[in-house]
Amino acid sequence: MATVLLLGGTGEARRLASVLLPAHRVISSLAGRVADPALPVGEVRVGGFGGAEGLAGYLRAERVDAVVDATHPFAARMSDNAAQACAAAGVPLVVLRRPGFEARPGDDWRHVPSLDAAAELLPALAERVFLTTGRQGLSHFAHLSSRWFLVRCVDPPVPPVPPRLEVVLDRGPFTVEGEIGLMRRHDIGVLVTKDSGGAMTAAKLEAARALEIPVVVVDRPPATPGVPVLPSVEEVAARLPGLLAAPK
Ligand code: NAP
Fold first, then answer.
1. Contact 160/139 with Cβ under 8 angstroms?
2. 41/43 Cα distance (integer angstroms)
3. What band does 201 get if pLDDT is binned at 50, 70 and 90?
4. Measured in angstroms, how far is the CA atom of residue 2 from the centroid of ligand 1?
C-alpha cells in the first residue's frame, strides 16, 4: 500500500485524508500551532521536521511514496521546504491550493502585498478595524495605537499586539448574518483579511459588501515554481495514481 504524507492544517487536508483512506496509508502532518486542532482521520504527526533537510530524512525513513502539500496558502516556508525535500529525496509532490477570493460588484477591495503594507494603509481608511489575519501576524499592527482592533483567532494572541483591541476566540465556518451582526455591534469601518480563499471564511466578505465597508486584502505569497498546483480535493485524488505510478 502506498504511503502519502499530507502536509495539513486546513479543512481541505482533512477532507483529502478521508478520501485517500483506506486505499493508501495516509500520514497527516500538523505544525502544532493550535492548542486543540481539528484532527483528520488516519495517522497524525505533529511538529516541524527541522527544515527541508529534516523533511527529506523523514520521507526516506517513513518510505513516503508521494507528498501532498495541502497547507494554508500563506504557509510559504513549509511549501518551499516540501519542494526542496521532495526534490532531494526523489518523492513526487503536488500542491492542493484552494482558489483565492474573487471580488464582486459592490466590493471595495484594496490589495496589498504584505501585513506590513496592510498596517501602513489602515490609518487612511478607518478608526475601527476588524482584523482576521490570524494571531501570528498581530505584531505587524502593534504600533497602531490610534486605531481600535477587533481580532478574531482560534487561540489567544501573544504580545506584541495593538494596545487597543478586543479578542474574539472563534473558528469558522461563519454565516453572513453572524458577520454582519458582529461588524455592526463593533461599529467596524474596515476589514483586513488574507486572500485565503474558501467558503469557510468568505462570509465576512459578503458582510463587508452589504455594509459597504472597505476590505484590505493581503495577497498570497508566490507559489513555489515547478510544483503542480491543483485547486480541489477531487483533482488531487484523481492525479495521485499517476504520481505514484511515475518512475522515480
Ligand atoms: P510556515 O511559516 O510556512 O512554516 C514554518 C515552519 O512550521 C515550517 O518550516 C515547519 O517547520 C513548520 N510547519 C508548517 N506547517 C507544517 C506542517 N503542516 N507540518 C509540520 N510542520 C509544519 O507555516 P505557518 O504559516 O506558520 O503555518 C503553520 C500551519 O498552520 C500550516 O500547517 C498551515 O497549513 C496552518 N495554517 C496557517 C495559516 C496562515 O495564515 N499562515 C492559516 C491557517 C492554517 P520545520 O522547518 O521545522 O519543518
1. yes
2. 7
3. confident
4. 25
Query: Can you tell me the distance from the alpha carbon of 227 to that of 225, in angstroms, rounded to the nearest whole number?
Result: 6
51-61 and 76-89 helices, crossing angle to 10°: 50
Q: Which atom of ligand 1 is nearest to the CA of 78?
A: 3
CA of 74 to the centre of ligand 1 (A): 9
pTM for the model stands at 0.96
Task: Decide if pLDDT at 248 tops 80.
Answer: no
Q: Rounded to whole angstroms, how far apart are CA atoms 78 and 47?
A: 12
Is residue 28 over pLDDT 90? yes
CA 157 to chain centre: 17
Strand partners, 2: none
Ligand 1 binding pocket mutation candidate from 71, 86, 97, 131 (most atoms within 8 A of CB): 71
CB of 72 closer than 6 A to ligand 1? Answer: yes
